[in-house]
Structure formats: structure tokens, C-alpha cells
Amino acid sequence: MTEPRWLTDDEREAWLRLMAVTMLLPNRLEQQLKRDAGLSHFEYYVLAMISECADRSLALTELASRTNSSLSRLSHVIARLEAQGLLTRAASPRDGRASIATLTDAGWAKVLASAPGHVEEVRSVVFDALSARQVSQLSDICGRMLATLDPHHRLLGLG
Amino acid sequence: MTEPRWLTDDEREAWLRLMAVTMLLPNRLEQQLKRDAGLSHFEYYVLAMISECADRSLALTELASRTNSSLSRLSHVIARLEAQGLLTRAASPRDGRASIATLTDAGWAKVLASAPGHVEEVRSVVFDALSARQVSQLSDICGRMLATLDPHHRLLGLG
DNA sequence: CGGTTTTAGTTGAAACGTCAAGTTAGCGGT
DNA sequence: ACCGCTAACTTGACGTTTCAACTAAAACCG
């Protein structure tokens, strides 16, 4: 085996910081949502994804793609959310295998009530600290990384 | 309650991408380390942090800060790593409450063996996709976010 | 000193995520 | 129409993380 290509000092610095962000940011969002809405970030994200679809409905496989979760994990979470009355599951009329999750009025209300606090948190942690130019740089940089991490754009909507 | 400050289109785009990265990147690292070293990313990070200290030793509270974990989580993980013979726990001579974790030779060897593959993965996902200028931008941007996320620099060494 | 508070860590139970196995429905070829 | 194969989940067991309660040592303080 060959000598590994170690990181330069600049790369190492950038890496440690990126690492710190990926460790701290999810925690931060988690805490805010748990405290103010009683939802985990993943639960919120699931509800938010469904809420943006026509009829507030989405098939589980598609939902799993967009939330970067296994079908198994999603199935467990959907069961919990259903038990809380935030959504319902129904068989697809088109495909007997598929389940379609639909937000209830309570689920819709939950999203409406939770979104402002969540956005405020995102803004205060990320965007209040960055210039418009930096926002654009960040977008480009993440786009580059996603070319490797998510070559088929499974997460960003257009499956 | 007042109307929330929603995100602009550019901010929204940047946010979705950053989100995608923070969801996908940990997964990627996890898989590589699990496959090639039989360690979770957190376990690897714990061992790596200790390995960089004098005497390959570090007190648990300090380690918890640097790995962004609760003491409880760390305690469980340290117990598992100790059971695998990768490190040992000992009471601090200075402070009777403190435990100090020290890498064994096997633990040190594990870090040495695992690091190259891990660095290669980091390089292939992050740095191969970025120009030198973008690396510097990323570093700045993350630094800005960390001013809010980690104001006391708990993660980046100089506690 | 002696009592209170704070810090460091451990432990066990509950919650959550992952993994492997199973079920049912569509699909492709013959 | 039938057989095998794949896709879309579901389920239960297992491992990990979190949470709350606990112990013990140090620090503070009058």
C-alpha cells in the first residue's frame, strides 16, 4: 500500500471546522425543535417534506429518498407520527405495494406552528453570520460536495 | 407573534444543500470506517483525539468536549473500547473524580491503520471537489458559523 | 473546619436507529 | 397463465444514544 496523501494545513483547518459544524448544527436544530415543538429534527423534516407536496401526500419510498433515510427507519417514524395523529397511511390506488402518507389537519397545523421558530434558528446560526457573497460560495461548495455524495440528486427533490 | 423572516431563494438553496451535506457526509464516513476498520465514526474520532495527546492520554470531560458528546455517551463508548482492549481507564492522580483514558498499543496501532483510509475518504468527498480558493472560503464560512455554534471553542482543542 | 454546591463520572431504563428476515404486490419473459 | 425476480414496505431483535438518578470527590464559603 502506498503513502497516503495527507491533508495540507489549510485543508486540515477547513476539515476540522466543517467537522465541527456537522457535529454541532444537527444538535442545535434538534434542541430547538424538541423544546419548542416537541419534534425531533427528523420528524419535523418528514412532516415538512410531505407538507410541500400536492394533497399533502407522498409515497414512503420517495419520502425515504428525500429524507435520506432507510425505509425501515421511515416506517418506524411514520408509525409514531400516525399514532400521534399527525398523519395517516393509506394504500396507493395505483400500486398495491406502496403506502402513501398524508398529513392530517393536526399535522398541517403542526408544521405551520413549528416552521417559523425553525427558520429563525437556521437564520440565527447560519445566515446572520454570513454575507450574501458567502451564502453563494457556500451554496457552490456544497453543490460540489453533493456531486460526490448524492450524484443522483436523491435528496434535492427531482429524483 | 410577529411575521417570521423567511429565507430568500438563494438562502433557501444554500440551506437545502448544506442540509444535504450534513445528512450525507456523516453516513459516508461511517460506512468507510465500519467497512475498513470495524469502528464507528465516533469511536474512531475518540481514539484519534486521544492519540494526538501527550502520553496518548486524555481526561474524559475534556474528551467529551472535543468530541461533542455527553459524558454519559462517552462513558458507554469508553467501556466498549476498553473491553476491546483499545484503551484503558485510570483514576487521575491530581483529581480523584477524573478518569483518564490512555490508548493501549493495540489502540495506537488501530489509529495508525485506520487513518489513511479515512483521510482518503475525506479527500475524495471534500477536497478533490474543491479549489484551493474554495477550501479557504469553506474554512471562513464554517468559522463564522462556529462563532455561534461553539463560542468557547470547545471542539477545536484550545478549550 | 463543616456544610453546601459544583464537578466528574457511572449506571440502568427507555427511546431510537439499524439490520436481517418476512410479506405482499407488480413486472418480465415464455 | 405461470414462474421467478424485484420493489415496497413491515416487523422484531439488537445495539447505541439519551435521559434521569445516583455516587463520590473537589471547591467554595462563612
TrEMBL record, chains A, B:
InterPro entries: HTH_MarR-typ (IPR000835), MarR/SlyA-like (IPR039422), WH-like_DNA-bd_sf (IPR036388), WH_DNA-bd_sf (IPR036390)
GO MF entry, a single one: DNA-binding transcription factor activity
GO BP field: response to stress
Organism: Cryobacterium shii
HTH marR-type domain residues: 11-147
Designated name of the protein: MarR family transcriptional regulator
